[in-house]
Design a protein that fits this description.
Rossmann fold
């Protein structure tokens, strides 16, 4: 299958299937048949807390694996619309088989996270990117390592420690896992964190900020005194931090004050977002005509994305995520210039493939729709 996948992903095949990728056609035969696109079936849904869930998936052959600490774009399709969010992998990279897990806490405004916690079931299809991110351990882990997390930011560092413990290689001289949660009931992975007590070379410290455990050695939010109490010197301790913005800012400021910024690794991740100022400027400066050649119709450019303008003109183009991730809406731009609403880049090549969900016309534009 590897040779076949390589052939299907080749340039000659791409030329024959343009403007769509060959995966666009393979998926119509079977949803997991792709040359490059990563698809997976849900094989397990496990409740971690009242509002957090671990989802285990079995990816297709396009999946290239992950390094602990990396994240994936995780997409679900609801009523024909693909919703995509970014989640860190929480499972061990040293586990047997291809399955892996993401662990997600539901947020009030998070459609995907709430769907995963309340409606996602085994057997469902999910849409994935390859694993990405530079928030990963070095090949040679130093003698002192601090994994520091808050809330759902525990997931990437959990993957790191799980992987280190699953490998046959010795652990560093000292690994400290310092986690902040509102309470024990709000904490993810509680049973496994409990099981690591007494593991040689591993020190697991949990701080419950709203419901402190009686007699706990640390209390409250992160502070340099917490590190001092644990005997951690930021200057000689490689530190990985993931969590809420407030925690990350506090840790970053502390390491700056200790002149230890070079020891700090921080994780920020998000899906592509549209610049509202760019959209407003495009609408104010919109000129020209947007021509839909296949439909034999045209409309005055109003500054919206080509997908939105096509729908307003009564067309029904295919689409998925509507944020430039999934490539479902890809079409040929026959001539004219378009601006990418996320990067701001302008492309004016003839007969080039564009994503109309994130492309706005710059003057007269004709597309194969």
């Amino acid at each position: 299958m590897g040779i076949m996948r390589t052939a299907l992903a080749s340039r000659p095949v791409a030329t024959m299937t343009s403007p769509h990728h060959v995966d666009h056609y393979l998926e119509k035969l079977h949803p997991l048949w792709t040359a490059e696109a990563v698809r997976a079936r849900v094989v397990g849904v496990e409740r971690e807390t009242d509002n957090a869930t671990t989802v285990t998936v079995r990816p297709n052959g396009a999946w290239k694996g992950f390094t602990p600490g990396q994240h994936v774009e995780f997409g679900i399709e609801v009523n024909g619309v693909r919703k995509v969010r970014v989640f860190s992998v929480s499972s061990s990279a040293a586990a047997k088989g291809r399955n892996f897990s993401v662990s997600v806490k539901a947020h009030p405004d998070g459609f995907v996270s709430r769907f995963l916690n309340s409606r996602l079931a085994s057997g469902e299809l999910v849409y994935l990117s390859q694993a990405r991110g530079e928030f990963v351990l070095p090949e040679v882990v130093p003698d002192r390592l601090l994994l520091l997390s808050g809330g759902s930011g525990i997931t990437p560092v959990m993957s790191m420690l799980r992987t280190m413990l699953d490998r046959d290689t010795p652990l560093p001289h000292r690994v400290t896992f310092l986690h902040y949660a509102r309470s024990r009931a709000d904490e993810m992975f509680t049973d496994q964190l409990d099981s690591w007590a007494g593991v040689p070379g591993v020190e697991v410290i949990r701080v419950y900020t709203r419901e402190p455990k009686p007699g706990a050695e640390l209390a409250g939010r992160f502070h340099i005194d917490h590190l001092k109490h644990l005997g951690i010197d930021p200057a000689d301790t490689l530190t990985f931090v993931c969590g809420p913005a407030g925690l990350i800012a506090a840790v970053r400021d502390t390491y700056d004050e200790q002149q230890a910024a070079d020891q700090l690794r921080l994780e920020y991740f998000k899906v592509p977002t549209v610049d509202p100022a760019l959209l407003a400027a495009a609408a104010a400066e919109a000129t020209g005509t947007l021509s839909f050649e296949d439909a034999g119709t045209a409309a005055a450019n109003n500054g919206n994305t080509i997908l939105e303008q096509a729908e307003a003109a009564g067309l029904t183009p295919e689409y998925g995520c509507r944020m430039g991730v999934c490539n479902t809406c890809a079409i040929k731009k026959l001539h004219g210039a378009v601006r990418h609403v996320i990067t701001g880049e302008v492309c004016a090549n003839t007969d080039e493939t564009i994503k109309p969900c994130v492309s706005i016309p710059v003057g007269d534009v004709a597309v194969a729709l």
